[in-house]
Amino acid sequence: MTRGLRNCNPLNIRRVAGTHWKGQAAQQTDSQFIQFETVEWGLRAAFCILRTYARRYNAICISDIIHRWAPPSENLTEQYIRNVCLWTGFGGLQRLAESDWPRLVKAMARQECGIVLPDATIVRAFCLYKVT
């Protein structure tokens, strides 16, 4: 099992001092990445980050989002972008609407953890994001 799945954090959201997420596990034993109570809470956090990227940085296409999420200083960013585009069917510079984010997050989780999460899990997480 990958670290992201063990942490119920399939997009590997890093810990940031002073930031507390809804659904964050009470005990945090991973020094680098947030641990959530369920995968859905971890995915909800990813949707919240995408909202911040769109509002604060105008990152509304896969290329801009992935360059922020997985910068070249730490990742093979261009390969990450190609994979996400292939798995979503979106173009790298295509403007994404919020309704496109479930497909994007599913592909990003596949890139980060190497597994395809069930659509029902993505939908439950997106609903959590929309109501909380």
Structure description:
The chain is built from 6 helices and no strands. The chain has helices at 3-6, 39-57, 62-69, 77-88, 101-113, 119-131. Helix 2 (39-57) crosses helix 6, helix 3 (62-69) crosses helix 4 (77-88) and helix 4 crosses helix 5. The chain is globular and about 40 Å long.
Give the SSE layout.
Blueprint: H1 3-6, H2 39-57, H3 62-69, H4 77-88, H5 101-113, H6 119-131
Helix pairs in contact: 2-6, 3-4, 4-5, 5-6
Summarize the structure.
This protein has six helices and no strands.
Taken from the alpha-carbon principal axes, the silhouette is globular
Strand fraction: under 5%
Task: Supply Rg.
Answer: 14 Å
User: How many E strands?
Assistant: 0
Alpha plus pi helix count:
6
Sheet of most strands: none
Low-pLDDT windows of residues? none
Overall pLDDT score? 97
Q: What order do the SSEs take from the amino end to the carboxyl end, as H and E? A: HHHHHH
Helix content: 40-55%
Keywords:
mainly alpha, 0% strand, 132 residues, 6 helices, 52% helix
